[in-house]
Amino acid sequence: MELHVVINGRKDLAEQLYRQLREAMESGRLAAGAQLPPSRLLAEQLGVSRKTVSDTYALLTYEGLLIGKIGRGTFVNAWSPRSERLQRATDLACADTLAKWQALPSPMGHPSRDTSPRWDFIGGATTRNQFPQDEWRRCTQDALRRIAQNSGFYSQPEGLPALRSAIAGHIAFSRGVKCRDEDIVVTNGAQQALDLIARVVLEPGTIVAMEDPGYTPARLMFNAVGATVVGVPVDDQGIQVDLIPDGTRLIYVTPSHQFPLGMPMSPPRREALLARAFELGAIVIEDDYDSEFRYEGRPTDSLQSMDTRGVVTYVGTFSKTLLPELRLGYAVLPPALFGAVVKAKQLSDQHSSTLPQWALAKFISEGYLLKHIRRCHTVYAGRRERILARLAGDLSPWLEAVPTVAGFHMAALCKVPVNIPLLIELARKVEVGLYPLNVFFHETPVREGLMIGFGAIETLDIDPALDNVRDILQQIG
Question: What is the domain range of residue 38?
Fold first, then answer.
């Protein structure tokens, strides 16, 4: 690869070369440690004498910007770019907008491998030890072969037909979703699906109703596009439909496993929600993020399967069943939204990466996904039972589990006043990761407690971790 230097005319050649190399180092385009081309090679590239290049290198070396290493070449020395040349954010016309984005919180951010505690009850993380590495490797190798045979053009914005077909079959079998391949758009995780729907449905000032407490990243994203988000309280049957305000254009719910409390939405409440949405002319987003894992009672229908008027968009993800890093999700769209969402997807990123799409299509069609879900279900069920036993036992003076029948997290509410920030801080010191419930409340009164995820923590680690939590609660309370 040639170094980008432009020489104009035949005058002041050394000055032109000196100025461009210095500016490249000051701006950071030539980073510290970068190797410059040999003087002979750069001279040939630029059509100048080797002496011109050698003299320029010598001057920059004298100024301390370059360093020569015998037998290896010429390298950029450590250099601090002159930040005073850069425009500050506060000087820009968009300063207020930048400040708004900069001030957004980052709820539910996962720690890096280096900062993760030994025992982590984080939500939304899966059990890595159960991931079928060999099967996924075979599917990825097949995907690479398919891509090698491809034409080299961009793919379809809505996703590969093979993956859309596999998703349609999977969610019809496991969740009773009524859809065709043509109703599905493949996205980069569920979060992009929410973003695309928001782009085509919402305008600044329009009303979004969502559960309160609810999924904070969705609320922040709706706010970011200028919508007015109204928190609607939930009870033991789910969102209180009669409190959804007039003028609502979008309703966001998690009916199978309410986030973060965990209870399912009752059938009468679902019927009432669909009727209210139709009355308002609103779109309902059903975020069915982890309902593949069900432990008690009979399965419930998806809200989408009850929709006879085309108002429900069903959003799903493979981050919860496979790995968060996979970043593949999907939306099952009613006909009224499909064309607009596909256009938004194309403008956003053209299409999701085809390599994991091909791999996932084969992974589903070969039956590996269902086998993996069954295997994880057994593991998660054991972890859930162990945590529930501890919450009903020696942790019961302080915490009480909210009844839940699905997913791989549960909420534990405080039965007595507990200093949750102090509990979390002290737990972190003994390598236990705990996470508060209060960050998910918007307008309704906060109920203090913990969100306890059991996807990432190993079964044998639960008791020693909760022993530490019990000891801290005794210490502070």
Answer: 13-76
